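#help-structures

NK: newbie question. if I give both the sequence and a SMILES, will the prediction place the ligand too? trying with zinc ion
OV: yes, paste both and it writes out the complex. here, I ran yours:
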Amino acid sequence: MADAPPCPACGGPTAFVCRAILYPGAERDARECAACASAFYWPVPSFEDIARCYPPAYYGGFFRQYWKDYYKGRALAARLSRWRPDGDFLDVGCALGTLAAGVRDHSRWRARGLEFSARAAQLGQGLNGMEISAAPLSSAPFENESFDFIHINNVLEHESDPGAALAAAARLLRPGGRLELTVPNGPVDFAPNKTLFRRWGRAVPTRHGGHLYFFSRRGLRALLAARGFRVLSARSFHFKLGAKARGLWPGAYKRFAKPAPPPGDAGVPPELTLEQGRALIPPAPSWPLYAASHAWRRAWRLSWSDFGYDFEIAAERR
Ligand SMILES: [Zn+2]
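OV: that's the protein plus ligand as structure tokens.
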């Protein structure tokens, strides 16, 4: 069956859809599900291939976006506290643990982080005093039923076995606990690859880096249901990006005609020290202004539309 794998989301039949570029220099086959329209690289890229999607210098960005992450955590703290006054919170793919620090500092919730990169986890412990375990979700070093709320932000599409990752999240949650999953809207994320392969007859480097899976709403629902989750809401957002990915924005596909830039960074040395990282953190912006724009942006997360580039899914562990 190696040449005809079933859909990793819904189990439906799949077929070759196009060649796609996993990272500059690595062109691979992608397949698409006839039942749910999810797409994925096949064969599943090797561990070495996946590691090459993440150059070590990318930690610099986590320091530059410190306040964005911290305020996002602070806003999440308010939502969590309205649900339950306290509990155990886990941020999966927490990078420096900055969002988790925002939750911890502005609620009675206990917060921990899980991060694939040992270096990011170590920097985050120093920066935020956060307890961060360096491991993939599928082998997270926590007892069963340790958490009430698990936040998984832009991680699932990078996992080599997303079903195992969600099964791990179900295992870590207490019954009635909640999962908040942010994940690209797969068919939209994948649209430039598919369209440009047909149009230009070759694989084209597009904007996503290291995404292995491109799940549709229907695929995500099937994947979650099979791992013991009940979906409470599924909303799409980032509508301008959605229009760009569909080629509806003027010139949206033009930049893909250029060869891919070599993997690199914005002048941050690869072995970033904590002190160098701290120096990259900008001054704190205004919280009330952030909170107002955050509330406005959240109002545009729509459950009845699949137009947006990303999904936010809330699910309850049965
Ligand atoms: Zn499917």
